[in-house]
Write a structure and sequence with these properties.
alpha+beta; 4-stranded antiparallel beta sheet; 4 strands; Alpha-Beta Plaits
């Protein structure tokens, strides 16, 4: 799997930054994650049993730090759940987890990188994730999931 399916490229982040400059309203980042069976830490990163964990376990190490960083920039995890079978799509569209994170702005999302420890925790995310999709979605002013159908 290519790096574009695990980590945002500079070009993609530039689009987020450009949008933040002109339309910096709240945003929900919808995370779709597929985990490796076993985490793939770079040689010398962790030792022995510390490195021998499932992808999901490695992602939880990242997630603990990420949750604090999200709160530090004013964001909130709205919803997280396991994903199961693909009903529409192909096998490559399979994900293990879906996480919806509300941010007060795209600027706040980008500020995650400035929270102490956040970028260092990416070693766990990178070891964990086989494939990811991150979608920037329209959000309400308050951190809630909305229903446009009114039912």
């Amino acid at each position: 799997m290519s790096v574009e399916h695990v980590t945002p490229t500079d070009d993609r982040l530039a689009v987020v930054l450009q949008r933040a400059g002109g339309d910096d309203r709240p945003v929900v980042m919808l995370n779709l994650n597929r985990y490796r069976d076993r985490a793939a830490y770079p040689e010398g990163t962790l030792s022995g049993d510390e490195a021998d964990v499932s992808g999901r376990e490695a992602y939880l190490r990242y997630g603990i730090v990420a949750a604090g960083a999200i709160a530090a920039v004013g964001g909130k995890i709205l919803w997280a759940t396991d994903a199961h079978e693909v009903v529409i799509g192909c096998d490559h569209d399979r994900y293990d987890e879906v996480v919806a994170v509300w941010y007060p702005s795209r600027t706040a999302f980008l500020a995650l990188a400035d929270v102490p420890g956040y970028m260092e925790a990416h070693v766990h995310r990178d070891a964990a994730v086989e494939q990811a999709t991150l979608l920037a979605c329209t959000a309400d002013a308050e951190p809630v999931l909305s229903n446009p159908f009114g039912v």
